[in-house]
Amino acid sequence: MNIIRFSLIGLVSALFFACGGEKGQAAYLDPAQPVEKRVSDLLGRMTLEEKVGQMCQYVGLEHMRQTAAGVDPEEIEKGHANGFYPEFPPEKIEQMTREGLIGSFLHVLTVEEANHLQVLAAESRLKVPLIIGIDAIHGNALVKGATVYPTPINQAASFNPELIEKMARQTALEMRATGMHWTFTPNVEVARDARWGRFGETFGEDPLLVGRMGAATVRGLQMEDYTGQDKVLACAKHFVGGSQSVNGINGAPFDVSERTMREIFFPPFKDCIDAGVATFMSAHNEYNGIPCHANKYLIEDVVRGEWKFKGFFVSDWMDIERLEDYHRVVPTWEDAFKLTVESGMDIHMHGPEFYFGVIDLVKQGKLSEKRIDKSVRMILEAKFRLGLFENPYVKDETTRKIVFNEDHRATALEAARQGIVLLKNEGLLPIDDKKYHKILVTGPNCNNQSILGDWAMEQPEENVITIWEGLKQVRPDVQFSLCDFDWDIRKMDTEKVKQAVSMARTSDLAIVVVGENSMRWNWNERTNGENVDRYDLTLYGLQQELVEEIYKTGIPVIVVLTSGRPMTTEWIDDHIPAIVNALEPGGQGGQAVAEILFGDVNPSAKLPMTIPRHSGQIQTYYNYRFTSKWFPYATGKSTPLYEFGYGLSYTTYQYSEVKLSTNEIKADGTLTASVEVTNTGMRDGTEIVQLYITDNISSATRPVKELKDFARVDLRAGETRNVEFTITPAQLAFYNVDMKYGVEPGMFTVSIGSSSRDADLKQAQFNVK
Q1: What range defines the domain where residue 522 resides?
Q2: Closest residue by Cα to residue 259 from 738, 763, 767
């Protein structure tokens, strides 16, 4: 281990000239100057120490104090959530900020602290403002009082990029109103292992859907080029492969072929670059034996070389140091710093060791100052474009006006409505409140903030509508009874189960809310979320017993699932007549669940992932190659419990046969495929029409089908609409036997329907010359 050193005396060289005053004012302080000129002017005035300081990020002062006071040292070393620096208490960090030796902070959760840090930075020689980052994954939900939108997995279930862009735009406004400028989202890893605890932080298993939702998030956060004081930097993460790691463990190795990487895992990141994403974050894991934080092929050759990315890379939580102690590819931290910077890393998250190590490397001639300048130039450009030099502070009245305002709450509610999936309905839903007068509500997730999902902190009670509260709010005249459980699923009480069963016997109907707990403020009791990976996907604790015992009473039962990942609930699917997968619907989610249960809202969401019957089916995804299911399992069904793209409605839809504009095209040609979709039920609804392509014969094996487009279609009862898709060469191209990208001649099958399930698809074929 390197020994941490602290010596600020003598680090700052002679001043070039004064930064203030009207006469001779530095060009970088003049907002009328082009950004490029301001950056070059400022960079030319900086000492090596000030430059390297811009590459360093630290956790916030209050975060340090709270961690030092109450977190186990072993958790600090091994975890990804808490940090402080024993030899660098908050007072030393404040002094470094005053001296212009720190460029960025994260985990700063209040306006007061954000403004305080910016005041310190303004006391420095060059007055370079700080950029403050935060994991605003679904709203700025780590901040108390913010609008908490549904998690990304819910967002993906809406198949509505425009709505996701709107949520991201509002998130950017709330971030700037609380002093924050950079969010570590979207997570555009393609989730292919449900054991991985961060599944709900992603947009699911399909690269096209993940890419579209990720790009929409980038557009909402940054708009055209993130210039202005109402925009924030987005960050495409984690590059790459954490979502299909060995054993489903966060940060475990990732080993796949280049073909799989380029067909499945790369495309969403490229989509984010096309949308203008400003930053990238490397993944915890190693890719084919090379840690992503030291992988020059990934950072420089692919992202910057092939894809022409112009922004900067940030490390994930202490992962540069892990090149030495976890991955063991270097003997010392200083070697790790050298390797990662040479590989293209620009900002270190988090702590002081990197700062001193990089300065020593430059002074020893092991790193060039020109390489440091490359990183700092990009960081300074971001600060100028965000308007931080003109106004780094936030006013309380701005915060009160923007955060959790009525418009944002309405968007969160609409997003929840569009992201809740109806999985099964044997006529029990929507609930007939004239028939069912006494309704039992129970289960460990029926009346707490587990609906917020991961990457949220406990919110004011008045800001969160739990499912219990939503039911009472939506149907105040119904007689609801509550049998509440403690939030800790790991410690469910047998006596409480008996009480719920007893109450069920005197009820007309039971709504049982089960699932998982992602509550960050109860870090060690969670069953889902970051660093909470599982070797099975069954309902934890006594939840299965609770459902079965209430079912035995003979009253109708509705199960509501709340979890960020697929759960294996085969018994529930076999026995329970109505199942709603609410996923993690956010702060307004309880109202949305209640509206769907009672039919005030007609569900439209579709699964963005495949749900297996058993964890032994992992990996399970719809775009598999044929031979992966060549033989059936000997001990159970081989089919998934629910297919990707599946979701029911309170109305029904009928699809016509597929019509093609032509049956033959050239390799660079296009055609249109269309179907007529009719709402054959008695209610208005929204259908998500999905287009899949199959390459019938190919030089390298291809998936049985791939999602290539989708459309949300609003249909009144009895209405028919023609839905048309354009099929382009980009939707037919792939990497052939020689890893050359292009379209091969031959027959293709186009399938259009309501899910990826064969029974739900209409097909037609065309030939490519």
Answers
A1: 418-629
A2: 738
